[in-house]
Every structure is written in C-alpha cells, then in structure tokens.
C-alpha cells in the first residue's frame, strides 16, 4: 500500500537534522511532495500532527518522487505538544504578522541556528501549518521562534512543499562550501547574443569556405566547441569587432594567396 | 480562456529583473506553477521556447495561484536563440555535470551576479530545461554560465517550479535587508534594565518574605540565577507588568491562607 518496495537511496541521515512537523496537513499529496523537498535538502525526520485524511495514504508515496524512506519512517501525533515533547528547540513558519511578542528569523538565519543547535547535540524541529489556514495561535505558542520568509510582499502564496523546500535548501546551504564563482566585470560593454551570433556566423562561413569544417560528421561538434569558447568569458562588443576583422583579414590573405594569376 | 479577468496584484515589476526562459516545457500546469514561483521572488518576465502542448493553455492559469499577469505577458519563441537575442547575459540551470568547459555557479552566486548585471543596466535570462530531459548541449552552448544547485547529491530530483523557486528566492534574498533575527514586539517594547531590576527586586522581596531564600550562603547565587533566566531573552515592559501581577497575586494567596485568625 505504501510502496515500501520502491524508493530511491536518499543518502545518509544527518545526525540531529531538524524534524519537519506538518500540523494538520490536508492533502496526502502535499505530505509526499514535502518528503521530496526534505530529501533535496538532506532532511529526513517527518512527523504529522492529526493529518486530515488519516495515515498512511498511498498518494503520499506516489507524490514523493522516491523519497519513500522519509514517509516510511514518519510518525503520527495527536497534538503539537506530543510531536515536540522530545525536542529542545522548536521553530514555527509563519507567513503573516501576528499580535504576539516573538523572535522572528529569516530562513537563512534559522538554518544557521539549527546547524548550531545540532552541533551542540540538541534536537530541533520546524512546524509547518495546514495548507490554507496556517498555524494557529496555540501552535505558535509552542515554538521558541518564528520563521518568516522575506518574499515578494505582494505575492506570498507558497504551497506547503515549497515552504519546506526553502527551509531544506537553507539547511543544506548553511554547511555547503561550493564556491559561488562570481565573474569580474569589464569597463567595456558586454556583447549581446545577437552580436555574438553575427560573429559566429561570419567565422563559420569563412571556415566552411576554407574547408576547415569539411568533415560533415565532426562539423556540428566543432562549431559547438567554438561557440563554447567564445561564450566562456565575458566577450565584449569591442572584442567581437576585432575578431570580425581578424577573420576577414585571414580569409583575404588566403584568397589572395590562392590567386596564381 | 486564459483567465485574464482574475489574478492577483503581484507588485511592481523590477527593472531588469531576469527573464525566466522555459525550454520545451511539457506540462502547462508546470508553466503555471513556475509563474507562481516567479511571483514569490519578484520575477515577472517569462518566455517559452516551443512549449510541447502549444500556448496559451488555460491549465497554466489555473495552476498559477493568481500569478496571471506573468502568464498574460509571456511570449513564445521557436528557438532558444530567438528567446535570448535581446539579452546580455544568459544562465542555464543544469543539475548534472556535463563534458563542457563552462563557468558553474551556485544559485546564490548566480543571484548576486544577476543583481549586479541588472544594476549595470544589462538584461539577463535564466534557461530551465524540459521536465525530464533537462537542457541539451545546444541549449547550454547558448548560456554564459551554468547554475548548479548544491543539494543532496543522493536526491537531486527537483520539479520545474521548485527549481524556479530556488532561483527566484535567491534573486529576492540577494537584495533583502531583513535582519536574520529580530524580536517582533508589536505595540509593546523591550524592557529597560531599570524595569527589569525593579521586577527582580519585587520578586526577591517576596521570596525573602516566604522563606524561599532563607539559606544565607546560597541566597546570592539563587538570586543571580533568577536574574540570568530573566535576562536570557528580550523581556518586554508589558510582560514585566504581568509578572509583577503574578508575584503579587501568588504572595497574597499565601498571606491570606496563613491568617488563621
């Protein structure tokens, strides 16, 4: 029923990674897509508080894109109090401002704190509310801090799995060491794609004329490799004009050399 | 058919915000959920290259949660070249390593670069491939840099709208100034040290009266520990007034109970 036989390897389970707690989720599909989003960011512990349609539901497994291990291990709880009883720190996602006095964090700030707590050996959890209503006041009173997503204030509508994905992504990024690789900018103007295409057409035309691309099988790959070369760095409009001149002069030299008279 | 009459106000359209280019998208629903994810992060310009099922498709509008303005303004192109011709910089999302020489960036690094390019007055775009196959080699040869998401390497499966959401989120976060951690106090305010001292004096006085602090040797440490507890978070002026009331009422009950007459 739950499709336990299938599922993907989702990698090692991080020690003290935060528990995702879905409070009164309505659609089983959303529990499945939540599991998928959790797997993306290396979260593995899922708890459900009073899921509307009961549990388990095979639709969750179908919607999880193979994140079965998470669903197989999910636990069901009657109340938020029960779901958080063994945790040391609890956060609650909250899209709207409420009339309460509470610490509010960004997902990025929250992820840094969750990593710090995990390093201390503390167990943490994040509450996500039901699809429409969100968490109620009693739910939020169970949390130490709120997490509010600083997104477009004119369009905050995030579905459940997307809200989970943002937190899972930030959890992963909080310890990710991949270099961002920012490129340096030049003083001159970067060429447009139209200008680049114009140059590549000129070069290909001349290479066809001189026979450089006569191998029909290799031709597409060779042209593509030249395209890669000229796309690698920031080619400027000035450099392209220079290269037009280079190609023209090379071709003219060859042509005049060919005329034996 | 396209539901133009409905739709939400999605806020102002950012100048030079990146164009999202869906290359050969298969399901119209995914175009709709992509528009929703774009609106979340303040992206507004959508282009479709050879959408499999044609365009427009009402299913996209239904799936967009009100991001109609984006879909209404979307343009359709026969080729990637046509879709990027007026852009100065193009990035391509690519989950898998390819055998090409190309700059690879994280979504965060890419978002920072896109912001920088926009500030220079340059027009940018981000290519997203079809749901299953992803971008092909010819598509990627049209991009200046690749964007690879540093997610769980054992579970990279992201759907189209989720991939767009991560980029839109990073685009938004790249200029967001929200403090990572802030106390939301609403109408009240954080208590001053004088107000805290006043409360601690009240508490200590009552604890002396009831004999809780009768051990003279332990008394300083016990008072200090209570001070640490109330100093740990930001206590508000409103909360201190409530606690004054709590102490007074608890003490009064004890006193009246003690008077046997």
TrEMBL record, chains A, B:
Reaction catalysed by this enzyme: uridine(32) in tRNA + S-adenosyl-L-methionine = 2'-O-methyluridine(32) in tRNA + S-adenosyl-L-homocysteine + H(+); cytidine(32) in tRNA + S-adenosyl-L-methionine = 2'-O-methylcytidine(32) in tRNA + S-adenosyl-L-homocysteine + H(+)
Gene Ontology BP annotations: tRNA nucleoside ribose methylation
Enzyme class: transferase
Pfam families the UniProt entry points to: SpoU_methylase
KW NAD (keyword) present: no
Ranges for domain tRNA/rRNA methyltransferase SpoU type: 19-169
Cellular localisation: Cytoplasm
Keyword Methyltransferase (UniProt): yes
InterPro entries membership: Alpha/beta_knot_MTases (IPR029028), RNA_MeTrfase_TrmJ/LasT (IPR004384), SpoU_MeTrfase (IPR001537), tRNA_m1G_MTases_N (IPR029026)
Main location: cytoplasm
Enzyme nomenclature, EC number: 2.1.1.200
GO molecular function: RNA binding; tRNA (cytidine(32)-2'-O)-methyltransferase activity; tRNA (cytidine(32)/uridine(32)-2'-O)-methyltransferase activity
Subunit structure: Homodimer.
Protein purpose: Catalyzes the formation of 2'O-methylated cytidine (Cm32) or 2'O-methylated uridine (Um32) at position 32 in tRNA.
Family under the similarity heading: Belongs to the class IV-like SAM-binding methyltransferase superfamily. RNA methyltransferase TrmH family.
UniProt name for this protein: tRNA (cytidine/uridine-2'-O-)-methyltransferase TrmJ
Gene that produces this protein: trmJ
């Amino acid at each position: 029923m739950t499709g336990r036989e299938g599922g993907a390897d989702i990698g090692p389970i991080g020690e003290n990674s935060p528990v995702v707690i879905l409070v009164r989720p309505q659609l089983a599909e959303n529990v499945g897509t939540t599991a998928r989003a959790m797997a993306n960011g290396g979260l593995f512990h899922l708890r459900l508080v009073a899921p509307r349609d009961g549990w388990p539901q095979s639709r969750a497994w179908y919607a999880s894109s193979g994140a079965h291990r998470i669903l197989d291990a999910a636990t069901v709880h009657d109340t938020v109090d029960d779901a958080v009883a063994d945790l040391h720190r609890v956060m609650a996602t909250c899209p709207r401002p409420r009339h309460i006095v509470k610490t509010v964090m960004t997902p990025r700030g929250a992820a840094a704190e969750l990593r710090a707590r995990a390093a201390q050996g503390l167990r943490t959890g994040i509450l996500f509310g039901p699809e429409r209503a969100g968490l109620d006041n009693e739910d939020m009173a169970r949390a130490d801090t709120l997490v509010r997503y600083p997104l477009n204030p004119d369009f905050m509508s995030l579905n459940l799995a997307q809200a989970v994905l943002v937190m899972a992504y930030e959890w992963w990024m909080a310890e990710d060491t991949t270099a961002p690789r920012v490129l340096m900018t030049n003083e001159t103007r970067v060429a447009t794609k139209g200008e680049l295409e114009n140059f590549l057409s000129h070069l290909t035309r001349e290479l066809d004329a001189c026979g450089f691309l006569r191998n029909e099988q290799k031709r597409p790959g060779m042209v593509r490799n030249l395209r890669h070369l000229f796309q690698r760095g920031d080619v400027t409009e000035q450099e392209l004009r220079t290269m037009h001149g280079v190609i023209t002069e090379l071709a003219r030299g060859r042509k005049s050399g060919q005329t034996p008279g």
